[in-house]
Design brief:
Layout (H helix, E strand, L loop, with lengths): L1 E2 L4 H14 L3 H5 L6 H6 L8 E5 L5 H9 L4 E6 L2 H13 L6 E5 L7 H5 L4 E7 L8 H10 L1 E12 L7 H12 L9 H12 L2 E7 L4 E7 L3
Parallel strand pairs: 1-4, 2-3, 2-5, 3-4, 5-6
Antiparallel strand pairs: 6-8, 7-8
Length: about 220
């Protein structure tokens, strides 16, 4: 596992939030982090391809993706040392150590070559992490910069619950604030703007009446 110098405040905040929660994170989050498996199914990783997850957390997604695409190599980045400890244990338990590499780093500014010895990924994905990252727009730019030509960025996160009752949205927002999570109202606009800037294609879906949003930005060859 590689480590670079990190912004202490956010790294310490995330370690504090997840020091104990990481042990029950996957059990509890499966009920409301919706759309993650749909994202993984849509990665369509080429044979022998490389995949980077930003904000890999407990390793839940990267383990499932590694099973789904057995010919690919995977890389996971997270700012929390506590989460990476849990992810490393999960990867070892699944016998994936030879195919998955983890590193501690800031998703808004990272050097993939220095961290992983690799750059130019076929796929980069971010699952329910942008809503926790200060300056999350920089993560979108950094993710696109880490892609190989014809690679794609896949994002799933909380939407604006636009098709759901107002009381539900208020209840959900109050709950999420306890974990320093804030749904990004401009997520679609930022992804679309970045796709125009890079000459990329852009696909966007609302899931479960706006509970979650799923976006894909595909770079040209």
């Amino acid at each position: 596992m590689s480590t670079t110098e990190l912004p202490a405040s956010h790294a310490e905040l995330m370690d504090g939030v997840y020091r104990w929660q990481r042990h029950i994170y996957d059990l509890t989050r499966k009920y409301y982090l919706l759309g993650r498996d749909r994202l993984i199914d849509g990665l369509d990783v080429p044979a022998g391809g490389t995949v980077l997850e930003l904000g890999c957390g407990t390793g839940r997604n990267i383990v499932l993706a590694a099973r789904r695409y057995p010919d690919a190599r995977f890389f996971g980045l997270d700012i929390s040392a506590e989460m990476l400890e849990t992810a490393g244990a999960a990867i070892a338990r699944e016998g994936l150590v030879d195919r998955v590499t983890l590193a501690q780093g800031d998703a808004t500014a990272f050097d993939a070559r220095a961290l992983f010895g690799h750059s130019g990924f076929d796929r980069v994905f971010v699952s329910y992490s942008l809503s926790m990252i200060p300056g999350w727009e920089k993560t979108v730019s950094a993710a696109l910069a880490a892609l190989a030509p014809s690679g794609s960025l896949h994002v799933v996160d909380f939407g604006q619950q636009e098709g759901l009752p107002r009381w539900f949205r208020a209840m959900l927002r109050g709950w999420l604030r306890k974990f320093h999570v804030a749904p990004r109202s401009t997520l679609r606009e930022v992804l679309e703007s970045e796709s125009r800037r890079t000459g990329a294609s852009f696909r966007f879906r609302t899931l479960y009446r706006g509970y979650a949003w799923l976006g894909v930005v595909g770079l040209p060859r």
